[in-house]
Amino acid sequence: MLPPLNALRAFDAAARFESASRAAEALHVTHGAVSRQIRQLEETLGTQLFERVGRGLRLTQAGHELATATRHHLGGLARVCSELTRRDARAPFVLSCPGSFLARWCIPRLGALKQSLPELELHLTASDEADTLRPGIDGVLRFQMPPFKETERQETRVLGKERIGPVLRPDTAWLPNETPPSPAVLLDLPLLHTRSRSQAWPDWCARQSLPSDQLHYAQGFEHLNYLLEATLVGLGVGIAPDYLVEEDLRSKRLIAPWGFVETQACLTLTLPEAGRARGRHPYADALSAWLAQELAAAPHAGQ
């Protein structure tokens, strides 16, 4: 007969932390409750599971054997319960996307999404990590270059092509009076850049037949969102995908005199493969279709 589940959970936590106090914090119970559960478990099994070392705990040989089993089986139970929860349409859809895309494209459209899919509860999380699904994430939205990484456990859908272009404040005194201004003007202007898209300016210049080795790089930033904020306060000329500056262009906070050019990158949505044990959220297909529709309907300056 199996020991009580609460006793096994208390033991598992104490084994991981080698401390009854830290186990109690993790389980949100008292130190005394963890100690009692472990003592009862030892009495039930008829063997000692821990050695008391100062204020900590050390697993005995029997404890090591039990810890290996509880870690495997309790972890499996947690994963299955999480997967079953995600099959419920009432569970939140957790979407991971870059912080810049979250702030500048997703958030302004949450109202429209609620109108289109009123039953969907969307949780957005910012991440600039690789496009792999992690436990607790139902979908990953990313700009990435083909070929896209496909596995037997996930599917990657192309939602739209990436288009990039230079943007700057409309009240700048840098631009000549000619309309439209020649792209060569940029060779004399302070260009803002970011590590996350180090090839953005050289790629754009190559499409304009401009020598990228003559560009004047000004301030650099870790993330694209910071670059766009610097562009908005007039520190220089930024470069970004048109999806991220739609609202700024519409409100005339920024202008894009040279338009946008299509790159090889795409905006993709990575989902768990349908029919796998992990499961796919019931609203995954509906959200994917809505995202693709919104992206296709967006105005693309310079196209």
TrEMBL record:
State if Transcription regulation is listed as a keyword: yes
Ranges of residues in domain HTH lysR-type: 3-60
- Identify the PROSITE patterns for this entry: HTH_LYSR (PS50931)
- Recite the UniProt keywords alphabetically: DNA-binding, Transcription, Transcription regulation
The superkingdom listed in its UniProt entry is Bacteria
Annotated GO molecular function terms are:
DNA-binding transcription factor activity; sequence-specific DNA binding
Any GO BP annotation? DNA-templated transcription
User: What Pfam families would the database entry show?
Assistant: HTH_1 (PF00126), LysR_substrate (PF03466)
Q: Which Gene3D superfamilies match?
A: Periplasmic binding protein-like II (3.40.190.10), Winged helix-like DNA-binding domain superfamily/Winged helix DNA-binding domain (1.10.10.10)
Query: Do you know which InterPro entries this protein is assigned to?
Result: LysR-type_TF_proteobact-type, LysR_HTH_N, LysR_subst-bd, WH-like_DNA-bd_sf, WH_DNA-bd_sf
Q: Which SUPFAM superfamilies match?
A: Periplasmic binding protein-like II, Winged helix' DNA-binding domain
State the family named in the UniProt similarity comment for this chain: Belongs to the LysR transcriptional regulatory family.
- The name on file for this protein is LysR family transcriptional regulator
State the species of origin: Cobetia crustatorum
